[in-house]
Write a sequence for this structure.
């Protein structure tokens, strides 16, 4: 049985490496991207490696876009077994300097979008008796070290959502978060010490954990860490 994974923000950085890793492991990967054309390099790379991949247009900050994407999945008969909520945005201004629209957009993309996808897809996972949900969070989501602007708040909310849904869903559906660390991506910048491949390893590992694996936890480099460390 070939399982299917939806990876948001799969066109570049950590998301692209997660998609490649899951395809290499034998899953069919649905690359969720705002601009389907931006994922062509990923499709070419996965296909060249013998993997299976398709594209899904989705803006996780837009509730209607999420609803439309789920409708297209249903129409195609595509059941999602693994969800990796990777898409995210970063603002660098002080919270008091941000306007409402920027704050709401950051929370929509980084926290409420993942929640909406989990709400749409977790029911099917529960009915089929299998599901893996991985939320790409951040060390800046810790209450002890909140990141800049609305970003840290949005990741703290994503962490809380992870814990809450892990408690609401059956044990057959694992819900975990991961802190990728400081990664050399468009978001992390050129001085970051870790590669996207290194960061993606933990997300892929969590997406493939067995029935006796953890749920409701935060991981970095495949090691459980305290939510507020």
């Amino acid at each position: 049985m070939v399982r299917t994974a939806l990876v948001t923000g799969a066109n570049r950085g950590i998301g692209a490496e997660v998609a490649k890793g899951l395809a290499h492991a034998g899953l069919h990967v649905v690359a969720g991207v705002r601009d389907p054309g931006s994922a062509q390099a990923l499709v070419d790379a996965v296909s060249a490696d013998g993997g299976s991949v398709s594209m899904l247009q989705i803006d996780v900050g837009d509730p209607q876009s999420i609803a439309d994407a789920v409708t297209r999945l249903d129409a195609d008969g595509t059941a999602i077994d693994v969800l990796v909520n990777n898409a995210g945005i970063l603002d660098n201004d002080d919270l008091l300097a941000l306007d409402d629209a920027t704050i709401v957009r950051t929370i929509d993309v980084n926290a409420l979008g993942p929640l909406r996808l989990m709400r749409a897809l977790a029911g099917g996972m529960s009915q089929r008796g299998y599901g893996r949900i991985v939320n790409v969070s951040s060390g800046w989501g810790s209450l002890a070290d909140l990141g800049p602007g609305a970003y840290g708040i949005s990741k703290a909310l994503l962490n809380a959502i992870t814990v809450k849904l892990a408690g609401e869903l059956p044990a057959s559906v694992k819900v975990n978060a991961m802190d990728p660390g400081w990664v050399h991506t468009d978001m992390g910048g050129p001085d970051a010490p870790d590669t996207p491949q290194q960061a993606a390893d933990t997300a892929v590992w969590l997406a493939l954990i067995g029935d006796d694996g953890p749920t409701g936890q935060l991981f970095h480099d495949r090691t459980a860490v305290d939510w507020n460390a």
Q: What stands out?
A: Helices lie at 13-24, 40-48, 63-76, 100-128, 151-168, 196-207. The first helix runs from residue 13 to 24. The mean pLDDT is 94.
